[in-house]
């Protein structure tokens, strides 16, 4: 299982959050956002299970989301994969 923060859906807000977080972080602890494409590239040595790289609430949900739910608000992508 893999998850990673993204700025794909709200780039200005997430860039601001990263700047605030990284102002007090060392280079080693710096927050890094990645796009869906970059995350998919990180998982290149794995076979992704369907539905692939999606927002966490879209990964095989057990039930319909509550009214007004917007999966983009997580600012994360999730995936499950197996090694090749």
Question: Would you mind describing this structure in some detail?
Answer:
The protein has 84 residues and is an alpha+beta fold. The chain has one domain (2-62). The chain is 24% helix and 17% strand. It has helices spanning 11-23, 36-42; strands at residues 2-5, 46-48, 76-79, 81-83. The strands form two sheets. The chain has a two-stranded antiparallel sheet with strand order 1-3. The radius of gyration is 14 Å and the shape is flat.
What is the domain total for the residues? 1
Give the overall pLDDT as a whole number: 94
Helix content: 10-25%
| Cα gyration radius (Å) | 14 Å
Distance between the termini: 15 Å
Pfam family, one: Methyltransf_19
EC number: 2.1.1.-
InterPro entries: SAM-dependent_MTases_sf, SAM_dep_MeTrfase_SAV2177_type
Protein name: SAM-dependent methyltransferase
Describe this protein with a few key phrases:
two-stranded antiparallel sheet; 84 residues; 2 helices; 4 strands
Task: Please specify the SSE layout and strand pairing.
Layout: E1 2-5, H1 11-23, H2 36-42, E2 46-48, E3 76-79, E4 81-83
Antiparallel strand pairs: 1-3, 2-4
Quick structural gist:
The chain is α+β, with helices and mostly antiparallel strands. It is 24% helix and 17% strand.
């Amino acid at each position: 299982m893999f998850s990673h923060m993204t700025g794909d859906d709200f780039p200005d807000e997430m860039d601001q959050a990263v700047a605030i977080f990284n102002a007090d972080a060392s280079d080693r602890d710096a927050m890094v956002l990645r796009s869906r494409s970059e995350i998919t590239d990180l998982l290149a040595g794995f076979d992704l299970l369907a539905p692939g790289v999606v927002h966490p609430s879209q990964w095989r949900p057990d039930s319909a989301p509550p009214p007004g739910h917007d999966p983009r608000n997580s600012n994360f992508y999730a995936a499950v994969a197996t090694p090749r």
